[in-house]
């Protein structure tokens, strides 16, 4: 039993090639054409503006957002401070008045138990 092959055309070199199925996912005939397509799709070096200091810089990797580690640390410290403030707003600390009333309630209940 022989497997049927289907003819596709490479989108880089426009040469026909054989593939095991008629699927549209077969677009490239070889690893060389795949590498060429990857080079074509690369956007090249990107320039960005640092959100901390405003300096223009060229990205060295895809995840880079700040121009230097110093700016990254400053941004991280600011974000941690903002997180701290948000957490503090969620759970307000007990005030002195609430502490006094709780202490008075406790002492009153204790006096009643001792007296009884």
Short description:
Helices cover 46% and strands 12% of the residues. The protein has 3 helices and 4 strands; from the N terminus they run ββαββαα.
Describe how the helices and strands are arranged.
Elements: E1 6-9, E2 16-19, H1 31-41, E3 47-49, E4 56-58, H2 69-90, H3 96-115
Antiparallel strand pairs: 1-2, 3-4
Report on this model:
A hairpin with a 6-residue loop joins β1 (6-9) and β2. This protein has helices at 31-41, 69-90, 96-115, and strands at 6-9, 16-19, 47-49, 56-58. It is an alpha+beta fold. The termini are far apart. The chain is elongated. The protein has 2 domains: 6-41, no CATH class; 47-105, no CATH class. A two-stranded antiparallel ribbon has the order 1-2. A two-stranded antiparallel ribbon has the order 3-4.
How many domains? The number is 2
Unreliable sequence segments: none
Order of helices and strands: EEHEEHH
Q: Overall 3D geometry? A: elongated
Number of strands: 4
Radius of gyration: 34 Å
What fraction strand? 5-15%
The chain-level structural class is alpha+beta
C-alpha termini separation = 99 Å
How many H/I helices? 3
Helix content: 40-55%
Largest sheet: 2 strands, antiparallel
How would you name the oligomeric state of the polypeptide chains in this document?
single chain
């Amino acid at each position: 039993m022989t497997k049927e092959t289907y003819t596709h055309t490479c989108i880089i070199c426009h040469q026909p090639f054989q593939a095991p199925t008629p699927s549209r996912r077969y677009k490239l005939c070889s690893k060389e054409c795949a590498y060429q397509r990857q080079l074509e799709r690369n956007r090249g070096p990107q320039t960005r503006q640092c959100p901390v200091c405003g300096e223009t810089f060229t990205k060295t990797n895809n995840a880079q957002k700040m121009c230097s580690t110093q700016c990254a640390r400053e941004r991280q410290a600011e974000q941690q401070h903002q997180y701290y403030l948000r957490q503090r707003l969620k759970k307000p600390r007990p005030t002195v008045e609430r502490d006094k009333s709780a202490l008075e309630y406790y002492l009153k209940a204790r006096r009643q138990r001792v007296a009884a």
